[in-house]
Amino acid sequence: MIDDDVTRHVARLARLALTEPELARMRHELSVILDYVDQVQELDLIDVVPTTHAIPMQNVFRDDVPTPSISAELALREAPEVLGGGFAVPRMG
Amino acid sequence: MALTDLTAEQAIAAIVSGQTSSCELVEAHLARTERDVWNSFLAVDRAGALARAREIDALPERPPLAGVPIAIKDALSIRDLPTTAGSRILEGFRPVYTATCVARLEQAGAVVIGKTNMDEFAMGSSCENSAYGPTLNPWDLTRVPGGSSGGSATSVAARQVPWSLGSDTGGSIRQPAALCGIVGLKPTYGAISRYGLIAFASSLDQVGPFARTVRDSALLLQAMVGRDPMDATSLEWPVPILLPDAERLDGVRVGVIEELMGDGIDPGVRAACQTALARVEALGGTLVPIKLPHARYGLATYYLIAPAECSANLARFDGIRYGHRAEDTENLLEHYERTRGEGFGPEVKRRIMLGTFALSSGYYDAYYGQAQRVRTLIIRDFATAFAEVDLVASPTSPTVAFPLGERTSDPLAMYLSDVCTIPISLAGLPSISIPCGLSEGLPVGLQLAGPAFSENRLLAAAHALETAIGFVDRPTGSGE
After folding, report:
1. pLDDT digit string (tens) for A16-60?
2. What's the CA gap between B272 and B365, in Å, rounded?
3. Number of domains in chain B
4. Which chain B residues are Cβ-neighbours of A52 within 8 angstroms?
5. What CATH number corresponds to the domain at position B182?
6. Fewer Cβ within 10 Å of end Cβ, chain A: N or C?
7. ipTM
Protein backbone atom coordinates (compact mmCIF):
# COMPACT_ATOMS: atom_id res chain seq x y z
CA MET A 1 0.00 0.00 0.00
CA ILE A 2 2.83 2.38 0.88
CA ASP A 3 5.07 2.74 -2.18
CA ASP A 4 7.59 5.42 -3.08
CA ASP A 5 4.97 7.61 -4.73
CA VAL A 6 2.66 7.57 -1.70
CA THR A 7 5.61 8.30 0.61
CA ARG A 8 6.67 11.24 -1.59
CA HIS A 9 3.09 12.53 -1.73
CA VAL A 10 2.69 12.40 2.08
CA ALA A 11 6.08 14.09 2.59
CA ARG A 12 4.93 16.89 0.28
CA LEU A 13 1.64 17.25 2.22
CA ALA A 14 3.64 17.37 5.46
CA ARG A 15 6.12 19.91 4.04
CA LEU A 16 9.09 17.68 4.83
CA ALA A 17 12.15 17.46 2.60
CA LEU A 18 13.41 13.86 2.83
CA THR A 19 16.64 12.57 1.32
CA GLU A 20 16.46 9.42 -0.84
CA PRO A 21 17.79 7.17 1.98
CA GLU A 22 15.31 8.79 4.41
CA LEU A 23 12.51 8.18 1.94
CA ALA A 24 13.34 4.48 1.54
CA ARG A 25 13.58 3.98 5.28
CA MET A 26 10.36 5.91 5.87
CA ARG A 27 8.45 3.79 3.35
CA HIS A 28 9.56 0.63 5.11
CA GLU A 29 8.88 1.90 8.66
CA LEU A 30 5.48 3.33 7.79
CA SER A 31 4.49 -0.01 6.25
CA VAL A 32 5.47 -1.89 9.41
CA ILE A 33 3.62 0.56 11.68
CA LEU A 34 0.52 0.65 9.45
CA ASP A 35 0.42 -3.16 9.42
CA TYR A 36 0.31 -3.01 13.21
CA VAL A 37 -2.28 -0.25 13.58
CA ASP A 38 -4.50 -1.93 10.99
CA GLN A 39 -5.84 -4.13 13.80
CA VAL A 40 -8.35 -1.35 14.57
CA GLN A 41 -10.10 -2.47 11.37
CA GLU A 42 -11.07 -5.80 13.02
CA LEU A 43 -13.76 -4.15 15.12
CA ASP A 44 -17.30 -3.44 13.98
CA LEU A 45 -17.75 0.17 15.01
CA ILE A 46 -20.67 1.31 12.90
CA ASP A 47 -22.77 2.32 15.92
CA VAL A 48 -19.94 3.68 18.08
CA VAL A 49 -19.68 7.45 18.50
CA PRO A 50 -16.10 8.72 18.04
CA THR A 51 -14.38 10.37 21.03
CA THR A 52 -12.71 13.70 20.39
CA HIS A 53 -12.40 14.76 24.04
CA ALA A 54 -12.12 12.29 26.90
CA ILE A 55 -13.63 14.51 29.60
CA PRO A 56 -17.07 15.84 28.59
CA MET A 57 -17.11 19.65 28.29
CA GLN A 58 -19.56 22.21 26.92
CA ASN A 59 -18.38 25.05 24.74
CA VAL A 60 -16.06 27.32 26.67
CA PHE A 61 -16.53 31.04 26.22
CA ARG A 62 -15.02 34.08 27.82
CA ASP A 63 -16.20 37.67 27.93
CA ASP A 64 -15.17 39.56 24.82
CA VAL A 65 -13.06 42.14 26.64
CA PRO A 66 -9.91 43.54 25.01
CA THR A 67 -6.75 43.00 27.05
CA PRO A 68 -3.17 44.10 26.31
CA SER A 69 -1.06 41.62 24.34
CA ILE A 70 2.70 41.40 23.80
CA SER A 71 4.39 44.22 21.89
CA ALA A 72 5.24 43.89 18.19
CA GLU A 73 8.90 44.18 19.15
CA LEU A 74 8.67 41.18 21.51
CA ALA A 75 6.63 39.19 18.99
CA LEU A 76 9.43 39.67 16.43
CA ARG A 77 12.26 38.96 18.88
CA GLU A 78 12.71 35.29 17.95
CA ALA A 79 12.14 35.65 14.20
CA PRO A 80 15.01 34.36 12.03
CA GLU A 81 14.51 37.34 9.69
CA VAL A 82 12.65 40.61 10.23
CA LEU A 83 11.82 43.07 7.46
CA GLY A 84 10.12 46.43 7.90
CA GLY A 85 8.59 45.54 11.27
CA GLY A 86 7.25 42.19 10.05
CA PHE A 87 8.27 38.55 9.56
CA ALA A 88 10.29 38.13 6.36
CA VAL A 89 9.35 35.18 4.12
CA PRO A 90 10.83 33.98 0.82
CA ARG A 91 8.85 34.84 -2.30
CA MET A 92 5.76 32.72 -2.85
CA GLY A 93 6.36 31.66 -6.47
CA MET B 1 21.56 14.09 55.97
CA ALA B 2 22.70 15.97 52.86
CA LEU B 3 20.43 18.80 51.74
CA THR B 4 19.99 17.03 48.39
CA ASP B 5 18.58 13.94 50.18
CA LEU B 6 15.67 15.88 51.67
CA THR B 7 12.22 15.38 50.21
CA ALA B 8 10.54 18.64 49.23
CA GLU B 9 8.27 18.41 52.27
CA GLN B 10 11.29 17.98 54.57
CA ALA B 11 13.08 20.83 52.80
CA ILE B 12 10.09 23.15 53.30
CA ALA B 13 10.03 22.26 57.00
CA ALA B 14 13.79 22.85 57.29
CA ILE B 15 13.48 26.30 55.70
CA VAL B 16 10.43 27.28 57.76
CA SER B 17 12.16 26.25 61.01
CA GLY B 18 15.30 28.17 60.02
CA GLN B 19 17.60 25.12 59.81
CA THR B 20 18.43 26.05 56.24
CA SER B 21 17.56 28.71 53.67
CA SER B 22 16.32 28.65 50.11
CA CYS B 23 19.74 29.96 49.02
CA GLU B 24 21.58 27.08 50.71
CA LEU B 25 19.19 24.52 49.34
CA VAL B 26 19.29 25.93 45.80
CA GLU B 27 23.10 26.13 45.91
CA ALA B 28 23.38 22.47 47.00
CA HIS B 29 21.13 21.32 44.16
CA LEU B 30 22.85 23.57 41.61
CA ALA B 31 26.15 21.89 42.50
CA ARG B 32 24.73 18.49 41.54
CA THR B 33 23.00 19.94 38.50
CA GLU B 34 26.18 21.51 37.16
CA ARG B 35 28.02 18.19 37.51
CA ASP B 36 25.50 16.58 35.19
CA VAL B 37 26.92 13.10 34.45
CA TRP B 38 23.41 11.99 33.46
CA ASN B 39 22.80 14.74 30.85
CA SER B 40 19.46 15.42 32.46
CA PHE B 41 19.57 19.20 31.99
CA LEU B 42 19.47 21.21 28.75
CA ALA B 43 19.73 24.60 30.49
CA VAL B 44 20.60 25.69 34.03
CA ASP B 45 19.63 29.13 35.34
CA ARG B 46 22.10 29.62 38.20
CA ALA B 47 21.83 33.41 38.38
CA GLY B 48 18.04 33.50 38.12
CA ALA B 49 17.55 30.71 40.66
CA LEU B 50 19.84 32.28 43.25
CA ALA B 51 18.27 35.73 42.76
CA ARG B 52 14.82 34.23 43.33
CA ALA B 53 16.05 32.27 46.38
CA ARG B 54 17.49 35.46 47.91
CA GLU B 55 14.16 37.23 47.37
CA ILE B 56 12.28 34.42 49.08
CA ASP B 57 14.73 34.28 51.99
CA ALA B 58 14.21 38.03 52.49
CA LEU B 59 10.40 37.78 52.69
CA PRO B 60 8.89 38.30 56.15
CA GLU B 61 6.99 35.02 55.76
CA ARG B 62 7.84 31.84 53.73
CA PRO B 63 5.52 31.14 50.81
CA PRO B 64 3.96 27.62 50.76
CA LEU B 65 6.77 26.03 48.72
CA ALA B 66 9.36 28.05 50.70
CA GLY B 67 11.97 28.44 47.94
CA VAL B 68 12.54 24.74 47.23
CA PRO B 69 14.23 24.19 43.83
CA ILE B 70 12.46 22.49 40.93
CA ALA B 71 13.38 21.39 37.39
CA ILE B 72 11.03 21.84 34.44
CA LYS B 73 10.72 19.68 31.32
CA ASP B 74 11.97 21.57 28.29
CA ALA B 75 8.52 21.26 26.65
CA LEU B 76 7.25 23.97 29.04
CA SER B 77 7.91 27.59 28.13
CA ILE B 78 9.56 29.91 30.62
CA ARG B 79 10.02 33.51 29.55
CA ASP B 80 13.58 34.27 28.37
CA LEU B 81 14.97 30.80 29.29
CA PRO B 82 16.13 28.65 26.36
CA THR B 83 13.33 26.20 25.45
CA THR B 84 13.94 23.56 22.78
CA ALA B 85 11.55 20.64 23.46
CA GLY B 86 14.63 18.52 22.72
CA SER B 87 14.63 19.64 19.07
CA ARG B 88 17.15 21.32 16.76
CA ILE B 89 14.32 23.25 15.21
CA LEU B 90 14.02 25.29 18.44
CA GLU B 91 17.73 25.64 19.19
CA GLY B 92 18.35 29.06 20.73
CA PHE B 93 14.62 29.84 21.09
CA ARG B 94 13.59 31.92 24.10
CA PRO B 95 9.84 32.05 24.82
CA VAL B 96 8.17 35.41 25.37
CA TYR B 97 5.82 34.11 28.08
CA THR B 98 5.77 31.56 30.93
CA ALA B 99 3.54 28.48 31.13
CA THR B 100 0.69 28.93 33.62
CA CYS B 101 1.64 25.83 35.64
CA VAL B 102 5.21 27.11 36.08
CA ALA B 103 3.97 30.61 36.95
CA ARG B 104 1.68 29.11 39.61
CA LEU B 105 4.55 27.15 41.15
CA GLU B 106 6.78 30.23 41.16
CA GLN B 107 3.95 32.18 42.75
CA ALA B 108 3.76 29.48 45.45
CA GLY B 109 7.49 29.83 46.11
CA ALA B 110 9.19 27.16 43.99
CA VAL B 111 12.54 28.14 42.44
CA VAL B 112 13.18 26.94 38.87
CA ILE B 113 16.81 25.89 38.46
CA GLY B 114 16.72 24.59 34.90
CA LYS B 115 15.13 22.84 31.95
CA THR B 116 15.35 19.07 31.54
CA ASN B 117 16.17 16.81 28.61
CA MET B 118 13.44 14.93 26.74
CA ASP B 119 12.65 12.99 23.60
CA GLU B 120 12.18 15.50 20.80
CA PHE B 121 8.70 17.07 21.11
CA ALA B 122 7.91 14.38 23.74
CA MET B 123 7.91 11.64 21.10
CA GLY B 124 9.70 8.64 22.53
CA SER B 125 10.00 6.31 25.50
CA SER B 126 13.73 6.41 26.22
CA CYS B 127 14.99 10.01 25.97
CA GLU B 128 17.20 8.79 23.09
CA ASN B 129 15.28 10.93 20.59
CA SER B 130 16.64 14.15 22.12
CA ALA B 131 18.66 16.17 19.61
CA TYR B 132 21.02 16.92 22.52
CA GLY B 133 22.03 13.37 23.42
CA PRO B 134 20.29 10.84 25.67
CA THR B 135 19.85 11.13 29.42
CA LEU B 136 21.39 8.22 31.38
CA ASN B 137 19.53 6.23 34.03
CA PRO B 138 20.87 7.02 37.53
CA TRP B 139 20.49 3.35 38.54
CA ASP B 140 22.69 2.16 35.67
CA LEU B 141 24.42 4.61 33.34
CA THR B 142 24.29 2.13 30.43
CA ARG B 143 20.49 2.14 30.46
CA VAL B 144 17.76 4.57 29.41
CA PRO B 145 15.78 6.58 31.99
CA GLY B 146 12.56 6.13 30.00
CA GLY B 147 10.77 8.92 28.23
CA SER B 148 9.74 11.20 27.06
CA SER B 149 10.29 13.12 30.33
CA GLY B 150 13.56 11.24 30.98
CA GLY B 151 15.51 14.30 32.12
CA SER B 152 12.85 15.31 34.66
CA ALA B 153 12.70 11.78 36.10
CA THR B 154 16.48 11.46 36.28
CA SER B 155 16.93 14.88 37.87
CA VAL B 156 14.75 13.74 40.79
CA ALA B 157 16.19 10.22 41.12
CA ALA B 158 19.77 11.59 40.96
CA ARG B 159 18.95 14.22 43.61
CA GLN B 160 19.64 17.18 41.39
CA VAL B 161 16.23 18.44 42.54
CA PRO B 162 13.65 17.06 44.99
CA TRP B 163 10.91 17.35 42.37
CA SER B 164 10.22 18.32 38.78
CA LEU B 165 7.54 18.75 36.14
CA GLY B 166 6.98 16.55 33.11
CA SER B 167 4.26 16.03 30.54
CA ASP B 168 2.45 12.80 29.75
CA THR B 169 0.72 12.04 26.43
CA GLY B 170 0.84 8.23 26.39
CA GLY B 171 2.96 7.51 29.48
CA SER B 172 5.73 10.11 29.38
CA ILE B 173 5.58 10.81 33.14
CA ARG B 174 4.64 7.38 34.52
CA GLN B 175 7.03 5.23 32.45
CA PRO B 176 10.24 7.22 33.23
CA ALA B 177 9.16 7.48 36.88
CA ALA B 178 8.93 3.67 36.95
CA LEU B 179 12.30 3.18 35.24
CA CYS B 180 14.00 5.66 37.61
CA GLY B 181 12.41 4.41 40.85
CA ILE B 182 10.43 7.54 41.72
CA VAL B 183 6.80 8.75 41.84
CA GLY B 184 5.17 10.15 38.67
CA LEU B 185 1.62 11.50 38.52
CA LYS B 186 -0.48 12.16 35.42
CA PRO B 187 -3.62 13.97 36.59
CA THR B 188 -7.06 13.90 34.95
CA TYR B 189 -7.00 15.38 31.45
CA GLY B 190 -7.59 19.11 31.96
CA ALA B 191 -6.55 19.23 35.63
CA ILE B 192 -3.53 21.43 34.93
CA SER B 193 -3.39 24.25 32.39
CA ARG B 194 -1.38 23.51 29.27
CA TYR B 195 -0.88 27.15 28.35
CA GLY B 196 2.83 27.31 27.55
CA LEU B 197 3.22 23.56 27.02
CA ILE B 198 4.56 22.91 23.53
CA ALA B 199 1.73 20.82 22.09
CA PHE B 200 2.20 17.23 20.90
CA ALA B 201 -1.24 15.53 20.86
CA SER B 202 -3.79 17.94 22.25
CA SER B 203 -6.53 15.44 23.13
CA LEU B 204 -4.02 13.59 25.36
CA ASP B 205 -1.30 15.98 26.63
CA GLN B 206 -1.24 16.61 30.38
CA VAL B 207 1.32 18.19 32.72
CA GLY B 208 2.23 16.48 35.99
CA PRO B 209 4.79 16.14 38.78
CA PHE B 210 7.73 13.85 39.52
CA ALA B 211 8.83 13.47 43.15
CA ARG B 212 10.42 11.00 45.54
CA THR B 213 7.23 10.73 47.64
CA VAL B 214 3.50 10.67 46.91
CA ARG B 215 2.99 13.57 49.32
CA ASP B 216 5.47 15.74 47.43
CA SER B 217 3.64 15.05 44.17
CA ALA B 218 0.38 16.02 45.90
CA LEU B 219 1.95 19.30 47.04
CA LEU B 220 2.85 20.20 43.46
CA LEU B 221 -0.55 19.18 42.09
CA GLN B 222 -2.23 21.27 44.80
CA ALA B 223 -0.34 24.36 43.64
CA MET B 224 -1.09 23.91 39.91
CA VAL B 225 -4.57 22.44 39.60
CA GLY B 226 -7.59 24.32 38.26
CA ARG B 227 -9.01 26.43 35.51
CA ASP B 228 -6.88 28.85 33.52
CA PRO B 229 -8.60 31.27 31.13
CA MET B 230 -5.65 30.75 28.74
CA ASP B 231 -6.43 27.03 28.27
CA ALA B 232 -10.02 26.29 27.27
CA THR B 233 -9.58 22.59 28.13
CA SER B 234 -8.53 23.29 31.73
CA LEU B 235 -11.11 22.32 34.32
CA GLU B 236 -12.67 24.02 37.29
CA TRP B 237 -11.42 21.71 40.05
CA PRO B 238 -14.30 20.48 42.25
CA VAL B 239 -12.47 19.89 45.56
CA PRO B 240 -9.13 20.89 47.11
CA ILE B 241 -6.23 18.48 46.56
CA LEU B 242 -5.38 17.02 49.99
CA LEU B 243 -2.01 15.89 51.31
CA PRO B 244 -2.51 12.14 51.73
CA ASP B 245 -1.95 10.64 55.18
CA ALA B 246 -3.94 7.37 54.95
CA GLU B 247 -2.17 4.31 56.36
CA ARG B 248 -4.94 1.79 55.64
CA LEU B 249 -6.94 0.76 52.60
CA ASP B 250 -10.03 -0.47 54.44
CA GLY B 251 -12.91 -0.90 52.02
CA VAL B 252 -10.86 0.09 48.97
CA ARG B 253 -11.44 -2.22 46.00
CA VAL B 254 -8.49 -2.42 43.61
CA GLY B 255 -9.06 -3.99 40.20
CA VAL B 256 -6.06 -5.83 38.81
CA ILE B 257 -6.04 -5.44 35.02
CA GLU B 258 -5.72 -9.04 33.80
CA GLU B 259 -4.64 -8.10 30.27
CA LEU B 260 -1.63 -6.26 31.72
CA MET B 261 -0.47 -8.95 34.14
CA GLY B 262 0.20 -11.75 31.66
CA ASP B 263 2.08 -12.24 28.40
CA GLY B 264 4.28 -9.36 27.36
CA ILE B 265 5.12 -8.38 30.94
CA ASP B 266 8.58 -9.42 32.19
CA PRO B 267 8.28 -12.08 34.93
CA GLY B 268 10.41 -10.01 37.35
CA VAL B 269 8.18 -6.96 36.83
CA ARG B 270 5.05 -9.04 37.31
CA ALA B 271 6.42 -10.61 40.50
CA ALA B 272 7.32 -7.24 42.02
CA CYS B 273 3.85 -5.89 41.23
CA GLN B 274 2.13 -8.98 42.65
CA THR B 275 4.12 -8.66 45.88
CA ALA B 276 3.15 -5.00 46.15
CA LEU B 277 -0.49 -5.73 45.37
CA ALA B 278 -0.61 -8.37 48.11
CA ARG B 279 -0.14 -5.45 50.51
CA VAL B 280 -3.49 -4.01 49.40
CA GLU B 281 -5.16 -6.89 51.23
CA ALA B 282 -2.81 -6.66 54.20
CA LEU B 283 -3.90 -3.01 54.54
CA GLY B 284 -7.60 -3.93 54.53
CA GLY B 285 -8.44 -3.48 50.85
CA THR B 286 -9.62 -6.09 48.38
CA LEU B 287 -8.17 -7.20 45.05
CA VAL B 288 -10.58 -7.90 42.20
CA PRO B 289 -9.44 -9.25 38.83
CA ILE B 290 -10.90 -7.07 36.07
CA LYS B 291 -10.92 -7.19 32.28
CA LEU B 292 -10.52 -4.33 29.84
CA PRO B 293 -11.45 -6.16 26.63
CA HIS B 294 -10.36 -3.34 24.31
CA ALA B 295 -7.11 -2.45 26.09
CA ARG B 296 -5.23 -4.56 23.56
CA TYR B 297 -6.24 -2.10 20.86
CA GLY B 298 -4.88 0.81 22.90
CA LEU B 299 -1.45 0.97 21.31
CA ALA B 300 -2.79 0.87 17.74
CA THR B 301 -5.42 3.49 18.60
CA TYR B 302 -2.82 5.74 20.19
CA TYR B 303 -0.43 5.46 17.24
CA LEU B 304 -3.16 6.77 14.96
CA ILE B 305 -4.57 9.52 17.20
CA ALA B 306 -1.30 10.94 18.58
CA PRO B 307 0.54 11.16 15.21
CA ALA B 308 -2.55 12.66 13.55
CA GLU B 309 -2.76 15.38 16.18
CA CYS B 310 1.01 15.95 16.16
CA SER B 311 1.07 16.40 12.39
CA ALA B 312 -1.34 19.31 12.83
CA ASN B 313 0.32 20.76 15.95
CA LEU B 314 3.83 20.69 14.49
CA ALA B 315 2.75 22.55 11.35
CA ARG B 316 3.57 25.71 13.31
CA PHE B 317 7.31 25.04 13.03
CA ASP B 318 7.77 26.84 9.73
CA GLY B 319 11.01 28.80 10.23
CA ILE B 320 9.24 32.15 10.02
CA ARG B 321 8.28 33.35 13.48
CA TYR B 322 10.88 31.49 15.57
CA GLY B 323 13.36 28.66 15.46
CA HIS B 324 15.57 27.19 12.76
CA ARG B 325 15.33 28.46 9.16
CA ALA B 326 16.93 26.83 6.11
CA GLU B 327 19.30 29.11 4.21
CA ASP B 328 19.16 30.19 0.57
CA THR B 329 15.77 28.81 -0.38
CA GLU B 330 14.26 29.80 -3.73
CA ASN B 331 10.59 29.93 -2.74
CA LEU B 332 8.21 29.41 0.15
CA LEU B 333 7.54 25.71 -0.47
CA GLU B 334 11.24 24.90 -0.54
CA HIS B 335 11.66 27.07 2.57
CA TYR B 336 9.09 25.03 4.52
CA GLU B 337 10.33 21.66 3.31
CA ARG B 338 14.01 22.25 3.93
CA THR B 339 13.52 24.08 7.25
CA ARG B 340 11.48 21.16 8.59
CA GLY B 341 13.64 18.49 6.94
CA GLU B 342 16.74 19.97 8.61
CA GLY B 343 15.10 20.84 11.94
CA PHE B 344 13.19 17.66 12.88
CA GLY B 345 14.79 14.36 13.93
CA PRO B 346 13.86 10.89 12.59
CA GLU B 347 11.12 9.97 15.10
CA VAL B 348 9.34 13.32 14.75
CA LYS B 349 9.43 12.99 10.95
CA ARG B 350 8.05 9.44 11.24
CA ARG B 351 5.14 10.57 13.40
CA ILE B 352 4.34 13.58 11.22
CA MET B 353 4.34 11.29 8.16
CA LEU B 354 2.18 8.68 9.88
CA GLY B 355 -0.29 11.33 11.07
CA THR B 356 -0.41 13.12 7.72
CA PHE B 357 -1.13 9.78 6.05
CA ALA B 358 -3.84 8.86 8.60
CA LEU B 359 -5.57 12.21 8.01
CA SER B 360 -5.16 12.28 4.24
CA SER B 361 -8.02 12.10 1.80
CA GLY B 362 -9.38 8.57 1.42
CA TYR B 363 -7.81 7.28 4.64
CA TYR B 364 -9.31 9.60 7.29
CA ASP B 365 -12.31 7.43 8.20
CA ALA B 366 -10.42 4.13 8.03
CA TYR B 367 -7.67 5.34 10.34
CA TYR B 368 -8.30 8.46 12.41
CA GLY B 369 -12.09 8.03 12.51
CA GLN B 370 -11.83 4.35 13.38
CA ALA B 371 -9.27 5.08 16.13
CA GLN B 372 -11.56 7.67 17.71
CA ARG B 373 -14.32 5.04 17.85
CA VAL B 374 -12.03 2.47 19.48
CA ARG B 375 -11.19 5.18 21.98
CA THR B 376 -14.86 5.28 22.94
CA LEU B 377 -14.82 1.51 23.58
CA ILE B 378 -11.74 1.82 25.79
CA ILE B 379 -13.42 4.60 27.81
CA ARG B 380 -16.48 2.34 28.24
CA ASP B 381 -14.28 -0.53 29.43
CA PHE B 382 -12.95 1.68 32.22
CA ALA B 383 -16.46 2.89 33.11
CA THR B 384 -17.57 -0.74 33.45
CA ALA B 385 -14.55 -1.52 35.64
CA PHE B 386 -15.16 1.48 37.90
CA ALA B 387 -18.70 0.28 38.57
CA GLU B 388 -17.05 -2.59 40.45
CA VAL B 389 -13.78 -1.17 41.82
CA ASP B 390 -12.42 2.14 43.15
CA LEU B 391 -9.03 1.96 41.43
CA VAL B 392 -7.29 -0.20 38.85
CA ALA B 393 -3.70 -1.42 39.00
CA SER B 394 -1.07 -2.82 36.65
CA PRO B 395 2.68 -2.63 36.07
CA THR B 396 3.64 0.82 34.71
CA SER B 397 6.11 -0.58 32.20
CA PRO B 398 6.37 -4.13 30.83
CA THR B 399 10.13 -4.14 31.50
CA VAL B 400 12.71 -2.48 33.73
CA ALA B 401 15.04 0.15 32.24
CA PHE B 402 16.46 -1.26 28.99
CA PRO B 403 20.00 -0.77 27.60
CA LEU B 404 20.73 2.35 25.56
CA GLY B 405 20.36 1.57 21.85
CA GLU B 406 18.32 -1.61 22.36
CA ARG B 407 15.12 -0.32 20.71
CA THR B 408 16.31 2.63 18.61
CA SER B 409 16.32 0.72 15.32
CA ASP B 410 12.84 -0.75 15.79
CA PRO B 411 10.11 1.93 16.22
CA LEU B 412 7.41 -0.62 17.06
CA ALA B 413 9.49 -2.24 19.82
CA MET B 414 9.96 1.24 21.31
CA TYR B 415 6.23 1.96 21.08
CA LEU B 416 5.49 -1.22 23.09
CA SER B 417 7.21 0.42 26.11
CA ASP B 418 3.97 2.33 26.70
CA VAL B 419 1.51 -0.55 26.36
CA CYS B 420 0.44 -0.32 30.05
CA THR B 421 0.08 3.47 30.25
CA ILE B 422 -1.65 4.25 26.94
CA PRO B 423 -5.19 2.90 27.61
CA ILE B 424 -5.45 5.16 30.69
CA SER B 425 -4.24 8.16 28.65
CA LEU B 426 -6.85 7.51 25.96
CA ALA B 427 -9.53 7.58 28.67
CA GLY B 428 -8.16 10.84 30.18
CA LEU B 429 -7.93 9.28 33.65
CA PRO B 430 -5.67 10.24 36.58
CA SER B 431 -2.87 7.77 37.15
CA ILE B 432 0.23 7.44 39.31
CA SER B 433 3.33 5.26 39.20
CA ILE B 434 5.01 4.40 42.49
CA PRO B 435 8.19 2.37 42.91
CA CYS B 436 7.28 -1.07 44.23
CA GLY B 437 10.48 -3.11 44.23
CA LEU B 438 13.43 -4.24 42.16
CA SER B 439 13.91 -6.71 39.35
CA GLU B 440 17.45 -7.44 38.13
CA GLY B 441 18.57 -4.70 40.55
CA LEU B 442 16.47 -2.09 38.72
CA PRO B 443 13.30 -0.35 39.90
CA VAL B 444 9.80 -1.54 39.01
CA GLY B 445 6.80 0.82 38.95
CA LEU B 446 3.26 -0.04 40.02
CA GLN B 447 0.60 1.93 38.17
CA LEU B 448 -2.68 2.91 39.83
CA ALA B 449 -5.51 4.75 38.09
CA GLY B 450 -8.95 5.98 39.09
CA PRO B 451 -12.00 7.67 37.56
CA ALA B 452 -11.73 11.29 36.40
CA PHE B 453 -11.35 13.71 39.35
CA SER B 454 -10.46 10.91 41.80
CA GLU B 455 -7.00 12.35 42.53
CA ASN B 456 -7.53 12.50 46.30
CA ARG B 457 -8.54 8.85 46.49
CA LEU B 458 -5.71 7.86 44.14
CA LEU B 459 -3.09 9.79 46.13
CA ALA B 460 -4.38 8.38 49.43
CA ALA B 461 -4.11 4.79 48.20
CA ALA B 462 -0.71 5.42 46.62
CA HIS B 463 0.56 6.94 49.87
CA ALA B 464 -0.68 4.02 51.98
CA LEU B 465 0.92 1.52 49.60
CA GLU B 466 4.15 3.51 49.33
CA THR B 467 4.45 3.50 53.13
CA ALA B 468 3.76 -0.24 53.35
CA ILE B 469 6.19 -1.08 50.53
CA GLY B 470 9.02 1.02 52.03
CA PHE B 471 10.97 1.17 48.76
CA VAL B 472 14.60 2.12 49.35
CA ASP B 473 15.41 4.75 46.79
CA ARG B 474 19.18 4.44 46.35
CA PRO B 475 20.24 4.80 42.73
CA THR B 476 23.55 3.01 42.28
CA GLY B 477 24.68 4.93 39.18
CA SER B 478 24.74 8.30 40.88
CA GLY B 479 28.19 9.09 39.60
CA GLU B 480 29.86 9.27 43.01
Report:
1. 999 999 999 999 999 999 999 999 999 999 899 999 999 988 888
2. 42
3. 1
4. 203, 372
5. 3.90.1300.10
6. C
7. 0.96
